[in-house]
Design a protein that fits this description.
This protein is α/β, with parallel strands linked by helices. The protein is built from eleven helices and twelve strands. It binds ligand PBG.
């Protein structure tokens, strides 16, 4: 059938009709908010390239967590900004590390909040790369052991889930084995499975002070041009024991998400990264776009493409709007 029998505008006539046929719905429970924890005391500073997002010392974190819980956001992902960095990233897997401190504090006060941790060395290494350097490149197998130590130290501090973002080969199996051997067989792994070497991470690297001091990340993160390789990454991570698969960044890779949705049955996450957030904020500050509407359209598009979970700096802004809408209805 076609026009004049089919008239799609019939179901667009009123707000109620439109609501009835809406296919994709955002919920507060879709979101995971990234949090930057900085070593020290009494720190709460806004990150200039991420308006509205702050770095907190552990003692200043609880107030923020209260707000996150009141907005019904179920989970946070922690990134550490340590005082000391060295070539091996030792502050990343120390029992007294800043992320380990933060986990203990949060889980003590708010046991139901899901605390996920980013497992990667780049925030803790003096050279800013995601692993151990040998012959001017990141050494895959030497890095695996340190990643496993980091994941284990997060687990011991009380994390609910670990999220390796380093893109070393074999890291999911190595981390899974280390967790299982230490009796953490129930702790889930969210794998940054298809992580691309992206310019969209720019503001994050300022926030986490993790810009590589030489070269770039192209020998371990993926080429933005490759979809088939992204599928291979995900197949491998499933075989190695990942519980949730992530695609990162989100917007330029919606096709990867869609492809993953049709192929795999695992929950899918998408990371709406710092550059995607910063561009919207910058344009809306200038009055060039309606920031709230752009935000919602972006988040809906990510969910429509197939994401079950969205890691996003917009989590609080969007949750606030969803809550207000619910109250108004
Ligand atoms: C650590 C890591 C990065 C991001 C998340 N985990 C930076 C990078 O790989 O350079 C980026 C997140 C964002 O841009 O919001 N490896």
């Amino acid at each position: 059938m076609s026009f004049p029998v089919d008239r799609l505008r019939r179901l667009r006539k009123t707000p109620t009709l439109r609501r009835m046929v809406q296919e994709t719905h955002l919920q507060c429970s879709d979101f995971i908010l990234p949090l930057f924890v900085e070593e020290g005391k009494n720190i709460s500073i806004e990150i200039s390239s991420l308006p509205g997002i702050r770095r907190f010392s552990p003692d200043k974190l609880l107030h923020e967590i209260e707000e996150i819980i009141s907005l019904e956001i179920p989970a946070v992902i922690l990134f550490g900004v340590p005082e000391n960095k060295d070539p091996m990233g030792t502050s990343g897997y120390s029992e007294k590390g800043v992320v380990q401190q933060a986990i203990r504090l949060i889980k003590k006060e708010f046991p139901t909040l899901v605390v996920i941790t980013d497992v990667c060395l780049c925030e803790y290494t003096s050279h800013g790369h995601c692993g151990v350097i040998k012959n001017h490149d990141v050494d895959n197998d030497a890095t695996l052991e340190l990643l496993a130590r980091m994941a284990l130290s997060h687990a011991e501090a009380g994390a609910d889930m670990v999220a390796p973002s380093d893109m070393m080969d074999g890291r999911i199996r190595t981390i899974r084995t280390a967790l299982d051997e230490a009796d953490f067989c129930d702790l889930a792994i969210m794998s940054y499975a298809a992580k691309f070497a992206s310019a969209f991470y720019g503001p994050f690297r300022e926030a986490a002070e993790s810009t590589p001091q030489f070269g770039d990340r192209r020998s371990y993160q993926m080429d933005p041009a490759n979809l088939l390789e992204a599928i291979r990454e995900m197949v491998l991570d499933i075989e190695e024991g990942a519980d949730i698969l992530m695609v990162k960044p989100a917007l330029p890779y919606l096709d990867v998400l869609r492809e993953a949705r049709t192929r795999f049955f695992h929950p899918l996450a998408a990371y709406n990264v710092s550059g995607e957030y910063a561009m919207v904020k910058a344009a809306s500050e200038r009055g060039w776009v309606d920031g709230d509407r752009i935000m919602e359209e972006i988040l809906v598009s990510i969910k429509r493409a197939g994401a079950d979970l969205i890691l996003t700096y917009f989590a609080k802004d969007m949750a606030r709007i969803l809550q207000e809408r619910k109250r108004g209805n």
